[in-house]
Amino acid sequence: MEEAHTMAPHRVVVIGSGFGGLFGTQALRRRDDVEVTLVAKTTHHLFQPLLYQVATGILSEGEIAPSTREILARQKNARVILGTVTELDLDARTVTSEVLGRRTVSTYDTLLVAAGAGQSYFGNDHFAEYAPGMKSIDDALELRGRIFGAFEWAELTTAPAERDRYLTFVVVGAGPTGVEMAGQIAELAHRTLRRDFRAIDTRTARVILLDAAPQVLPSFGDRLGDAARSRLEKMGVEVELGAKVVGVDSTGLEIEKGDGTHQRIESATKVWAAGVQASELATLLAAQSEAELDRAGRVKVLPDLTLPGRPEVYVVGDMMALDNLPGVAQVAIQGSRYAAKHLKARLDGKQAPEPFRYFDKGSMATISRFSAVASIGKARFSGFAAWVLWLAIHLVYIIGFKHRVTTLLHWAVSFIGRGRSERTVTAQQIIARNIIRKMPPEDLPTLPVVASDHVPAADGPSAERTG
């Protein structure tokens, strides 16, 4: 009797552990005929909308960044690989990733790219050294060190000009992240820290929100934008619109106003929340397909979220350009679930689903404790009701029961009381990233290799050590 022939599973490689990558992987959990390999440059899934709360001491990083392996531990058809994707070969259908000198090549039948986006400095990447963005846990921890450290340094100085520089905080970008960040720094200075220092009065701190646009929260419309600005100004935040940042250094920044005049603002702590740029993988995808890139570096995809000429490659989330969809979590979640549905129909020989259509569940942004703005469908509202809705929705999307519980407890400490549970900072958080960034490639750390280690060939699905 002949042995029954078992078909090899369909190999899916997912790039990125954000909303798109994680939800796309989970959408395939019931498929025994599919093997999923998730490749990510971090070991965690980041709930990016709450990064500003890590930066301002409300939440710990673990509450908004649970382990990807823990989330997927029960999904038997999923494997997680740590590494930064350095090469894509769409003809050979391989993904090459590296971490600490170890090189891994993963082969796929279907590729789902959800690598997200990074901070955009609009061609001035050197600003990053003095004005960190808000896209990663490293960003948030560095900013936490800079923000709380500024008050410590102000306590030490006896020079009024130096003290003023330390007590001036500038947030660049008046979108949701910038508004939330400015509001929380103001609450820190005026409420949380007001009794903690002896030589300084933290309530004298200046918080400045800058944007080249003419409105706060432009995507929310005039009414909510004006409401947010009014609330910020009541909290003591100085809102300056029509101001373009043209220079940033260690002690301040220079802005160009609408009338062409320049002004310098002395500030030791700057936060950059002004723009996003798609992952550099978008360029690799466009170079090997018929796809084009938009002005933000995003890949223009077909209505089924595949690359033109590459039906086996899906691009979702912040990396894709389709119908002017915004770079928000819901676009990534819905897009990745659609891609999984499309793939399952193809594997089952069924008709493909209708082209992807995004269902807008609305937008929200907090301004301060008990105050937020929300835009849901045609409804626009602000204040306490919007804040309660924001609270509930964010709790729902935080992954894991234990993270919801601890997050709720920390919110109670910060919003009902005046404390911040996560105020621990170290010098390493502030300076280590810039030191690593400036290190020569040959000095960067690598995994150790000894003679007894097996080094497999690079053309297989396993790892190859280099360096």
From TrEMBL:
InterPro entries in alphabetical order: FAD/NAD-bd_sf, FAD/NAD-binding_dom, NDH-2
Keywords: Cell inner membrane, Cell membrane, FAD, Flavoprotein, Membrane, NAD, Oxidoreductase, Transmembrane, Transmembrane helix
Reported cofactor(s): FAD
EC number, as in UniProt: 1.6.5.9
Stretches assigned to the FAD/NAD(P)-binding domain: 11-334
Superkingdom, taxonomy of origin: Bacteria
Gene3D superfamilies according to UniProt: 3.50.50.100
Bilayer disposition of the protein: Single-pass membrane protein
Primary location group: membrane
GO CC entries: plasma membrane
Assigned protein family: Belongs to the NADH dehydrogenase family.
Stated name of the protein: NADH:ubiquinone reductase (non-electrogenic)
Organism: Knoellia aerolata DSM 18566
